[in-house]
Design goal:
Helices cover 29% and strands 25% of the residues. The longest helix is centred in the first third of the chain and has 17 residues. The strands form 3 sheets. Strands 11-10-9-12-8-1-6-7-13 form a 9-stranded mixed beta sheet, with helices on both faces. The chain has a two-stranded antiparallel ribbon with strand order 2-5. A two-stranded antiparallel ribbon has the order 3-4. It is of the alpha/beta class and 267 residues long. Strand 3 and strand 4 form a beta hairpin.
Amino acid sequence: MHIVVCAKQIPDPETPPAAFKIDAATNKVVPAQGIAPVLSQFDGIAAEAALRIKEAGGDGKVTVISMGGESAQAAIKQVLAMGADEGVLLNDPAFEDGDSHTTAKVLAAAIKELGDVDAVFCGRQAADWDMGQVGLLIAENLGWPVTIIAKGVALEGNALKVERVLADGFEKTEVNLPAVVTVSNEFGEPRYPKLPQIMAAAKKTVTKKTAADLGLDPSEVGKAGARLQLQKLFIPEKGAQVEFIEGETPQEQAANLVAKLKADKAI
């Protein structure tokens, strides 16, 4: 059983609002000084789900893949410390500034190149943009079935038994392998690696892949191949106006309030 976990490095969600800044010229978040990026919390949960299946079967392999710059190795190393066996970093300037479609295209190409993958686990969404599209698009690129927002996953024969989170309850499904699963926070907390595991992961080599290694045309990935064009990224400005309604008695205040709302055509 070979499971691939897709992991994304994101700005730390605990970054203080005062340290959060946007470069209006490039439409990008400015990295906060002294605050390192982290593994997206949902991807850590997806890794936990994959590792539990591996441990329940007594064998198998878990490979973690991340697309990003050199710093994304930290996210890969974290999953390796949790118990994953191998790490792959997809690092190429051609991959930058893409959207969900191009991200999924690159990840799917890397998964295909591995050749013997039985399942792909992703977080239900990235904890920065919260789009929740990449897992579905990976499945589309691979031509595999997909089940999303899982709170429970178990291997049974050549299928995965999945319990999904719905708006009004839960749903039990079964999906034949190979398949893609997106895992939700209802699954539970990911394990915290101990120091020996962290030290062992630090020594592991992460394989790096470029667009050329994956046989991808640079014009079809990253910004060049993106279908979604970001027009403007900004921090919303919040403001409020307060007006006190005068009156000698509560009844008079209520009457003055009604008169004000009528004058403003609010009622």
